[in-house]
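User: Quick sanity check before I run a bigger batch. Here is a single chain. Can you write out its predicted 3D structure?
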Amino acid sequence: MNPVVVAPAPFKAALPAAAAARAIAAGVRLGAPGVETRRVPVADGGEGTLDALIAAAGGRRRAVAAVDPLERPIEAGLGELPGGVAVVELAQAAGFELLEEAERDPETTTTTGVGILIRAALDLGAKRIIVGLGGSATTDGGLGLARELGVRALDADGRDVGARGRDLGRVAALDLSGRDPRLEEIALEVACDVDNPFHGPRGAARAFGPQKGASPAAVKRLDAGLANLAGCVAAATGSDLQRLPGAGAAGGAAGGLAALLGGRLVPGARLVLDAVDFGRHLDGAGLCVTGEGRMDETTAAGKAPAAVAAACAEAGVPCVALCGEVALGPHRIRELGLVAALPIGRRLRGLPAARAAAEEDLAAAGAAVGALYAAGLPVSRKATP
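Assistant: Done. Predicted structure follows.
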């Protein structure tokens, strides 16, 4: 039997990608004794990106004293890769999961901790910094992180303005004269997986604010604040954030990184797959198994399993997805390049119980896929070009 590549994304709130890959691979080997499995955990710029890139490149994680979305002291992870590359994962310092439910309010949160991590990467001498977006608790347009790199937001009287979501409407001007000069000497790549604009009906506040805890009234204020900030950015830099696809990612942090710090927005899943040299792992493989917690239309918009399926289709390797929940129909699944997408639940459970059983269920589903593969059923045949 040809090798099986196991390349899942994280199962949110249940398993990191590496643990999911171990469970699936163990199951595949149980169902197909003797088969070689190649574990390649993947991500799309959000949670799990740091670990995926460290594992792929043989890097290491460094602990950095930073702050959380409410600016409380925390210890956050920063990735150091060979060749002067650093990896900053926004979720480490501005992540939704860092807050209790009652604390979640994008008017009171900030990306300040992300700026601390970027500055720490510069202090280490990084020449390329990859910033992974995803899982943010913030809608500050990147003001917090930019402030830590020397960008000042000023009110109509020339006084410094805060860097939380509620402060966006008070910004009258931006002063970039004190921006860290080291930013001019590096490549700053911003990995994101959405194409939402900075503000407006599909903008950062309206599209993502409610899931971060914003009330309808707060969403309106945040959207107006982002529109105001976009005007200030245009006056200071000449950049029109509304014309930059993806600027609304992570509460507008993507736009702030691009316009204020010189970052370049890139598709997160593609960046990770290139970094782990995914094509090399597919060489000679007979099957790939990917997966995520919930497969829905956002998967098709640039999530890691869709990128994995596309790479497999290009290489002629069949790809199957194992998911906590599948919310796409069969035709849509095939359009993504997948042979099948299978839910892993083996019995009716509530969400907390399903998450607790994810590792066991993934191993069982992997065993079923492995048994089909060993039996030579259609899942194991090469895809037609």
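The first strand starts at residue 4 and ends at 6.

User: Great, the batch can go ahead then.
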